[in-house]
Amino acid sequence: MIGSALGAQEFEIRPSPDSRFALEVAKTGLLSGKKHLFLFERFQGKLQYDAAAPERSKIDFTIEAASIVCKDTWVSAKDLVKVAEEATGPNMLDVAKHPALRFVSTGVTRRPGGGYDVAGTLTIKGNGQPVTVTVSLKPAGDKALEFTGKAEVRMKDYGLKPPSAALGAVGTKNEMQVEFGFTARAK
Question: CA-CA distance, 63 to 139, in Å (whole number)?
Fold first, then answer.
């Protein structure tokens, strides 16, 4: 039972039909107003959740970098392949050398309006940087929790170099928006 007086309960996070881990990257210059939408299809995590004292909760979450898929509807099928190749290539995620992205929490605080701020270290391409994720959760039956959340990540903090075109007239914003929704199931 979630919320028992027994302390932290362990949960497992895996992809499911109702889960989503998305990354939005806004374009600049001639394509200003357009966004690349990337979904990560493979991820896993472990959550230790203490309903009586959420600030003691912990999460360790790993994303398979090569599972990124571009879902843009505004580019051609040929360009979708090119965008995906650039995202997994050496200037961006460099999946050949860095097969995973990882977030490990370092602290949880309640938000005044509800939900939580989860501070932690996000590691991309071997470079760990602090990031705060805004999270909402609700029980999903006796043995599951539904999570939604978002964060902003700056590419330059991780040494990511997005492609540009037309001598810089087409580029990418430094800030990426991460949004997710998934169900954590009790072990």
Answer: 24
